[in-house]
Specification:
36% of the residues lie in helices and 22% in strands. It is an alpha/beta fold. The strands form six sheets. Strands 2-1-3-4-5-6 form a six-stranded parallel β-sheet, sandwiched between helices. Strands 17-18-19-21-20 form a five-stranded mixed beta barrel. Helix 10 runs parallel beside helix 12 and helix 13 runs parallel beside helix 14. The longest helix is centred in the last third of the chain and has 26 residues. The chain binds 5'-deoxyadenosine and iron/sulfur cluster. 5'-deoxyadenosine binds next to strand 15.
Length: 458
Amino acid sequence: MTSVSVPPRKRLYIRTFGCQMNVYDSGRMADVLAPLGYGPVETPEEADMVILNTCHIREKAAEKVFSDLGRLRVMKEAKAEQGQQMVLAVAGCVAQAEGKEIVTRAPWVDIVLGPQTYHRLPEMVARAARAAGAQIDTDFPVETKFDLLPAPQASQGPIAFLTIQEGCDKFCSFCVVPYTRGAEFSRPVAAIMAEAKALVAGGAREIALLGQNVNAWHGEAPDGSTWGLTRLLYALAELENLPRIRYTTSHPRDMDAGLIRAHGEIPQLMPFLHLPVQSGSDRVLEAMNRGHKADMFIRICDELREARPDMALSSDFIVGHPGEKPEDHAATMTLVERVGFALAYSFKYSQRPGTPAAGQPFQVAEAIKDERLQELQALLRIQQDAFNESCVGQECEVLFTGPGRHPGQVMGRTPWLQPVHALGPASLIGGTARVRVAVRFPNSLSATLLDQKELACA
Ligand code: 5AD
Ligand code: SF4
C-alpha cells in the first residue's frame, strides 16, 4: 500500500501593513506556504510562523514594524521556553529597503524577504529551520515571482484583487516605491485573464486590478501584440458573472483619452476612481517630478465626469513637501474646492532615506505641516460628508460581501466603495442587489433592500 504523506498542520499568521498590493501579496504568500502544511490562524500567539508584510511609504509605517517585532520577540521567547518554535519573517517594502538592518536591529528575525522573492519563501523556511542566523533575500531576480507562484488557492470572496503590474519608473521625489518595488513590470494578458476567470469561478463578482502604476500596464497578448489597460478592461468586461471591475492606483500622466472614454462605455467599470494628485501647486508638482500640472489633473477629472456623470473621485495629497510655501498650500486648497472629492488620503511629507526630496534644503517645519494637514483634512471631510449625504434617499446596487455586525444584517459595498449595511438574508452574500440608502454615518451607510421578494427567490 502506498501512503500519501500529509504534512503536519502548521499555523501561519500574516500581518499586512500598507496598500492593497500588500494584501494581495499576503494571499500569495499563504498560497505558497500551504503545500508545506501552513494554514491561517487569527492571532500571532497561536502561530508557528509569523510574517509581517510591511510598508515603507512613510516613516510611521516602518516604525510600527519595529514595535511589532519587539512584541513578537517576547512571544517567540515564551514559545522557546516551552520547546516550541516560532519562525519570524519580515516581508515587503521595509524588508527590501532595510535588508540586513532589520536583523541588526531585531536579531530574533529569521527571514527577511523583499516583494520580488515570495516564490522563494518555502526554500527560505526550510533553510531557516536548519541553519542558525537569518535568511535574507532582497534580490530583484530575473525570474518573475508571478511565473513561479502557484495559482491562487483560497477564494478571495466576492471582492477580489488581481495584481497586473508592479513597480514604478516615475521616481517622484518623495517616494520609495521605485527603490523597494523596482522597475515597472506588466504581467502578460493570458496570465491575467486566466487568474480573472479563476477568481470569478471562485465567487468573485468584483475584481480590482492592482498596480503601483496600474494605468501604465501594457501586456503581451497571445497574438504577440501589446495591449494597454483600456483593451484589457474591454476584455474583462466580456467575462460572464463579473458585474464589477475597478483598477487602482492610477497616475494622472497615464490617463489617456481611450481610458477616459472606457469609463463611459463599460458599465462594469465602477464609477469611482482613485487618482492621486499630491499637490495643487505647479511649482510643487514640478519639484515632486510628477510630470503633470494642476490644470491637466482638473481637465482629466472633468472629462471623466463627462464620460460617466456619476463618477466620484478619490485622491492622495502630501502637505509640506520640501520648499512648499503658503501660496502652494493655498493652490492645493483651491484644487480641492474645484474638483470635489468623495474620499481622500492626505499625509504630512515624510523624509524617506535615499529619495531625492529627503536631501533637499527647505524642509518644512513639523508644526506647519500639522497646520496645513488639519486645514486640508477639514475641507476633505466636508466633501466626503457631502458626497455621502448626496447618496441618502438614492437607489443603488450593492455587492454584498458578508454578514453585518448585528444579527440579520448583511454588509457590502456601493459602486463608490462606501461600506453599507442592510437588514437582509445571508443568501444575498456573494451577489448584487438594489437598495435605497437610508442613513449616512461618518464612514459608512445604512440602506434598505428593494425588490426583496424577487431577491429571496433569485
Ligand atoms: N511622505 C508622505 N506621503 C507619502 N506618500 C508616498 N510617499 C510619501 C512620503 N515620503 C503618499 C503619497 C502616495 C501615497 C500612497 O502615500 O500620497 O500617493
Ligand atoms: Fe511613487 Fe510616484 Fe511611482 Fe506613485 S508614481 S509609486 S508616487 S514614484
